[in-house]
Amino acid sequence: QEEIAALSPAKREIFLERCNVTNPVNLTWWSNCPTRVAYNWQAEFRSVRIWEHPALEEYKYMLWLDSDGFPSRPWEKDPVAYFIENKGVIMFDNFPQGQAREGHILKQIFKSFNDTTACNVKLNKTKGHLQRTLFHDEKQICNMPLIHGFMHITDLDFYRQPKVINGLKKLLGNCFLCRSPDDQLAVTIPAVIYAPEKSLDMRLHGFDLKVYHNMHFDGKRNEKSKPPGFARRWAEFASKDFPSAANGCKVTQAM
C-alpha cells in the first residue's frame, strides 16, 4: 500500500485500471492485476530495481540462482573468479531461452536505448561470447533471443551505468508491477547492445556445472534429469554426486 500511495498520478491510474479497481485499499499480494501482484513485484524488482538496491551498493558482482535452481554436484572450478579475471559483464548458464518478438516491445527497446536495436543475436561458439549487428533504424527491429534468467553472474557496475539503468526505466515506463521488461530481457538488452564480447557462455568457457532447474541441467533441453524432480534425484544420487552435502542438505519438496 505504501508503494501504491507513492506512485505518480499517471502511474497510479494505469495500475488501478490494470487491477480493475478504483480504490487500492483491498489489493493484496495475491490480487490479480491482471496477473498476481506478488509475482509481478518480484519480476519488476529483479529486472529494474535490483541494480540500485541499497543492500547491494557495496558489491560489484552478483551470482544469481533462482530459488528452484540447485547445484547437483561440487563445482571443480570457480565461475565467479573466472568471470572477474576475464572482466565479463554477464556470464550465463544457458542461451537462448525464449525471445522478445512482440512488435510493441521491440519498438520500446529501440526508443529506450537511444534509437538502437540489435539483430542477428547469437553465440560465437569459437570465442564463447554473444555477437550481434546493431541498427539505428526502427524499420530494422527484429526478434531478440534472451539469456536464460535462472542462473547468471553479473557485473553490477555495468548494470548500474546511467545508460543501462535509464534505458531499463524507460522501458518500464509508467507501468507499475509489470513484467515488461522481465528479468531475462533486462539482463540481455544492455549486454547485447553495449558489451556482447563480454557476455560469456559458461559451457563454452569450460564450466559444466550441472545446475538443476525445471527438470533439466543448466537449462539444456537435451539434458533432462533422471529421475525427474530434484527431491527424487537428490535422494538417489546425492551420496555419490555430492557427498559433502548429502547428509547436511535435506531435500524433501523440490520439484
UniProtKB/TrEMBL annotation:
Domain of life per record: Eukaryota
UniProt cross-references to InterPro entries, sorted A to Z: Nucleotide-diphossugar_trans
Protein name (Swiss-Prot/TrEMBL): Uncharacterized protein
Originating species: Proboscia inermis
Lineage of the species this protein comes from: Eukaryota, Sar, Stramenopiles, Ochrophyta, Bacillariophyta
